[in-house]
TrEMBL record:
<feature type="domain" description="CUB">
    <location>
        <begin position="10"/>
        <end position="128"/>
    </location>
</feature>
<dbReference type="InterPro" id="IPR000859">
    <property type="entry name" value="CUB_dom"/>
</dbReference>
<keyword id="KW-1015">Disulfide bond</keyword>
<dbReference type="Pfam" id="PF00431">
    <property type="entry name" value="CUB"/>
</dbReference>
<protein>
    <recommendedName>
        <fullName>CUB domain-containing protein</fullName>
    </recommendedName>
</protein>
<dbReference type="InterPro" id="IPR035914">
    <property type="entry name" value="Sperma_CUB_dom_sf"/>
</dbReference>
Length: 144
């Protein structure tokens, strides 16, 4: 039995579970500046969390003094009060985003600076129903 692998990149919408959000030149490195975003739609209303598995994730590093992502940054936007941003190298990490209290689509936005920097990302997006979810109204980061 073959497994369907679905990937999405800038300007596309993820409507399948286990969609891979990839940089435009994937599997090659990309040095394009600008904004790259995808929209993630909940498959069913019972979806309570979105798990992001960072298979490959290398974008600009945070400020060395403050630790804040000032240049390249990935942001998850939803109508809930949870905000999540990340930058740098995060290969092999994952994060759970609480989406239980929203029916609106979730946006994943890569805001990339004009500086010349080779980037790559491959993020597996997995929707979890309530019975497999972690604690409500949280963002949890863990290593794969």
């Amino acid at each position: 039995m073959k497994t369907l692998i679905v990937s999405a990149s800038c300007g596309q919408t993820a409507t399948n579970n286990a969609t891979y959000f990839v940089n435009p030149d994937f599997p090659s490195l990309s040095s394009q500046a600008g904004v790259c975003e995808i929209t993630v739609k909940k498959l069913v209303p019972q979806i309570s969390q979105l798990r992001l598995d960072f298979i490959h994730f290398t974008i600009g590093q945070p400020n060395r003094k403050t630790g804040i992502c000032e240049k390249d940054v990935m942001r998850v936007e939803s109508s809930t009060n949870i905000e999540f941003t990340v930058c740098g190298i995060n290969n092999g990490q994952h994060v759970y985003i609480d989406v239980e209290d929203t029916t609106d689509p979730i946006k994943i936005v890569m805001n990339l600076t004009k500086e010349s920097y080779d980037r790559i990302w491959e993020i597996k997006l997995v929707s979890n129903k309530a019975y497999v979810a972690l604690v409500h109204n949280t963002v949890a980061v863990a290593r794969l």
